[in-house]
Amino acid sequence: MSDIVVIVLNYKTADLAVLAAQSAAAAMADFGGAIILVDNDSPDDSFQRMTELVRSAEWPSHLDVQVLQSGRNAGFGAGNNFGIRAGLEICPTAEFVYILNPDAQVERDAISALVNYLKTHPKVAIAGSWVYGETGEDHCSAFRFPGLASEFESSVRLGPITRLFKKHILPLHVPETSGQVGWVLGASMLARTSAFNDFGLFDETFFLYFEETDLCLRAYRAGHEVHFVRESRVCHIGSVSTGMGTWKRTPAYWYQSRWYYFSKNHSRGYAIVATALNVIGTALWRLRRKIERKPAPSAEHFLKDMVAHDLRALLRPTPDATIRAIGVSSETSLQTSVD
Asked: Which of 123, 241, 276, 323 could anchor a disulfide with 200, C-beta 3.0 to 4.6 Å?
């Protein structure tokens, strides 16, 4: 029996997080390990609420279920790193780490499908699920890595350009077969514990967005593969804690993550060109929409905010990209109110 550490990172979605953990527990009948619910310093009563719900719920006796408080909201990557380190201290024999969004529900065989896939594909370090919405609609579950061509294609939104750059289109949506992709959604992601020793945990410079893209790119550059697994299905409400689907104005952390991803993994010059292509593409799209007398729905002040952020970023050094090791940090505290 393989041991798995499951991480459910919560921020103001306590009830959903416990439901997500319960769905994972039901899918772990054939696996040992631990389920770690991490509260990322929510400003509400999430920690107490999750503690109460976990205490009152029934859990499989072979699983260790813990509610932990990270003590700070340093973002998705930092919160999951806290959970991974704590989980591996609780269950050091874990062969896999499974990251599950708090607003997701795994189907009964979703985790076993990912585990079986990794066991039969030794080159694969990270595997992601087929993610769908509450009403059954497919979510984009697999992607190519972002680049200059994808920045222009996605912003200009013009058929001939899309056909010309078809090999660079960022979203792969739901691939027809399981297999290698660039990166997969962090909403449902299984990774080999041993592989983290090769490429590290999440880069905590990212607060939100691009962190799983960066993780998968580092896995690829370290000689591993990232695969999408159709046989693993997960229902995802999507953006409950971040509110991405309802953004009126794109938050600063999205621009920060985008700039850092390009400048860290390519170069600052590459990041400048990526922004320029995005600006040109978006401007052309808006002009076309104006000529067609159609609205151009997008977040308010998107171009202005992106250009202003990137100009300021040029005046600052790129943050240190050193990836923290998998070993338990001296700052990791296993503060828990669950016996």
From this structure: 323
Query: Identity (one letter) of the amino acid at 335?
Result: Q
Alpha carbon distance 198, 189 (integer Å): 17
Which of 239, 263, 278 finishes a domain?
A: 239
Q: Which domain holds residue 278?
A: 252-314
CATH number at residue 28: 3.90.550.10
Residue 142 burial (CB count, 10 A): 26
DSSP symbols for 75-129: -HHHHHHHHHHHHHHH-TT-SEEEEE-TTEEE-TTHHHHHHHHHHH-TTEEEEEE
154: amino acid identity, one letter: S
End-to-end CA distance of the chain: 25
Q: Which residues, including other chains, have CB under 8 Å from residue 43's CB and lie 6 or more apart?
A: 12
Helix (H, G, I), strand (E, B) or coil at 249: coil
What is the pLDDT of the chain when averaged over all its residues?
A: 92
Residue 328 has pLDDT above 80, yes or no: no
Nearest by Cα to 64 from 93, 47, 87, 81: 87
Q: Which helix (H) or strand (E) holds 26?
A: helix 14-26
Find, among 253, 202, 188, 259, the residue nearest to 23 by Cα.
188
| CA gap 314, 301 in Å, rounded | 20
* Number of structural domains in the chain: 2
For the stretch 199-249, pLDDT in tens is 999 999 999 999 999 999 999 999 999 999 999 999 998 654 445 556 789
The pTM is what? Answer: 0.92
Instruction: State the residue for tokens 């202003």.
Output: 308
- How far is residue 10's CA from residue 14's CA, in Å, rounded to a whole number? 6
Query: Which of 146, 180, 171 lies closest to 257 in space, CA to CA?
Result: 146
* pLDDT tens-digit series, residues 149-164: 999 999 999 999 999 9
pLDDT digits (tens, 9 = 90+) for 17-68: 999 999 999 999 999 999 999 999 999 999 999 999 999 999 999 999 999 9
Is 245 within the bounds of a domain? no
